[in-house]
């Protein structure tokens, strides 16, 4: 058994100890297509949670997900994210990932979509049946530096404007609406995640997926 696999298994079983606080129990969602269990990445090294949908600090201004203490991914995505953690630790000692969301219950995806349905922002939230978060293969995240300060990416999470879209970065860099530092910070996050095996959604600098959408939808099932 490899060291990485040991870390993943340790993360999965960490909160199953009898003396673990009840509120810290991670969600375990069985995949009917593969009968594997999701992995709680909250216990990974170099990770801090800021689960926006488990608070009112989100564009809906309400709590949509009551599980604020754990954050899970499909094992394939979880192993890739562990690789990303190792790369970050090596290249930026003391830095951490701040995770806004990972597995998202289908019921939460439906609530998010209802808030933007029929508005100009509707294309920023996936239609529920297409949400890759609901399969456990997507993660929303940013970076925190060694002083525990969030790294400036030019916009906050869930900023539904073109300024948050990677495909417009060079345009905003030329106009001065995105600084060189902000652009470099996005490139750093992107480089780490891509080397770990993720690809980025072109509408959101914070959103990464572990497998192509068509593969996920063909092989796995959404969960609530």
Explain how this protein is built.
- With 224 residues, the protein is α+β, with helices and mostly antiparallel strands.
- The chain has one domain: 2-Layer Sandwich (Muramoyl-pentapeptide Carboxypeptidase, domain 2).
- It is built from six helices and seven strands.
- The protein has helices at residues 3-13, 75-91, 106-116, 169-175, 180-195, 213-219; strands at 39-40, 47-49, 72-73, 96-101, 138-144, 199-200, 207-209.
- It has a five-stranded mixed beta sheet, with helices on one face. Strands 1-3 form a two-stranded antiparallel sheet.
- It is globular and about 40 Å long.
Helix amount: 25-40%
The ordered H/E elements are HEEEHEHEHHEEH
Distance, first to last CA: 31 Å
Spatial arrangement of strands, main beta sheet? 2-4-5-7-6
The proportion of strand residues reads: 5-15%
**Structural class based on helices, strands and sheet pairing:** alpha+beta
Secondary structure tally, helices: 6
Kindly report the average pLDDT value. 85
Radius of gyration: 17 Å
Total strand segments: 7
């Amino acid at each position: 058994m490899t060291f990485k696999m040991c870390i993943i298994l340790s993360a999965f079983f960490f909160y199953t100890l009898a003396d673990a606080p009840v509120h810290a129990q991670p969600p375990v969602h069985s995949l009917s297509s593969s009968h594997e269990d999701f992995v709680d990445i909250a216990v990974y090294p170099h990770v801090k949670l800021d689960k926006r949908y488990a608070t009112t600090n989100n564009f809906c201004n309400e709590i949509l997900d009551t599980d604020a203490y754990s954050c899970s991914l499909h094992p394939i995505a979880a192993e890739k994210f562990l690789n990303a953690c190792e790369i970050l630790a090596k290249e930026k000692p003391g830095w951490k990932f701040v995770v806004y969301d990972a597995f998202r219950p289908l019921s939460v995806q439906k609530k998010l979509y209802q808030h933007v349905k029929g508005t100009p922002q509707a294309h920023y939230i996936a239609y529920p049946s297409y949400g890759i978060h609901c399969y456990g293969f997507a993660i929303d995240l940013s970076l925190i530096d060694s002083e525990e300060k969030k790294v400036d990416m030019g916009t906050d999470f869930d900023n539904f404007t073109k300024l948050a879209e990677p495909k417009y970065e060079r345009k905003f860099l030329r106009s001065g609406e995105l600084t060189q530092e902000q652009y470099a910070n996005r490139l750093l996050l992107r480089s780490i995640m891509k080397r770990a095996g993720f690809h980025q959604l072109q509408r959101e600098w914070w959103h990464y997926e572990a497998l192509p959408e068509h593969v996920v939808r063909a092989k796995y099932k959404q969960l609530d």
